[in-house]
Design a protein that fits this description.
This is HAD family hydrolase. InterPro entries: HAD-like_hydrolase_sf, HAD-like_sf, HAD_sf, PGP-like_dom2. Keywords: Hydrolase. It holds the Pfam family HAD. By secondary structure, the chain is of the alpha/beta class. The protein has 2 domains: about 140 residues, HAD superfamily/HAD-like (Rossmann fold, 3-Layer(aba) Sandwich), CATH 3.40.50.1000; about 60 residues, DNA polymerase, domain 1, CATH 1.10.150. It is built from 11 helices and 8 strands. The chain has a 6-stranded parallel beta sheet, with helices on both faces. A two-stranded antiparallel sheet has the order 2-3. The radius of gyration is 17 Å and the shape is globular.
Length: about 220
Amino acid sequence: MAAHPLTVGFDLDMTLIDSRPGIKAAYQELSARTGTFVDAEAAVTRLGPPLEQEIRRWFPEERVTEISALYRTLYPAHAITATKAMPGAREAIAAVHAAGGRAIVVTAKYEPNAKLHLTHLGLAADAVIGSLWAEAKAEALRAHEAQVYVGDHTGDVRGAHTAGALSVAVATGPCEAHELRAAGAEVLLADLTDFPSWLERYVAEGAEGSDGADASEAASA
């Protein structure tokens, strides 16, 4: 793969998109189809890890593969249109492109469904890689030579560090700012609306990075 001057990876759920309403609807449909109660309200507070982790809370192990496959087939009809872009998502991707870089999405979500979200919302990612979680995200980040990975979960921080990338954390998902900081995020932003200005400083400083102090204060205010 040709080297690029700047490649930034982004997580999807609760980083670029607020998929909680759509995922809630998908779980409710799953409950209706299977006759098994799934607490959709609780499930959407735990977004980030692979789907199978949540399915195991409600179904026996021998049905996890079957039920996960059913959920993924239900997902397009129930989750896509209800999902919104997170504040600053479009501007964050545009900022990477304006800096001459590439914006890729690396997510634990099933890749075809991740692509449906991005297409529906008009989020112009240069590549989408799905079904990778936490440290496994380093596989795609290394392959695309990403220098920065942006996510909302401590698993995203671990993925960035495993890849040797700078971890930029946004306090918009299930992990609070202090958890992201304790996990070792080098930069902590309140949300993606702070990302373009941080990226401008990062690029201006020759990709040496920023300690994110100002953004960290904003996130914990």
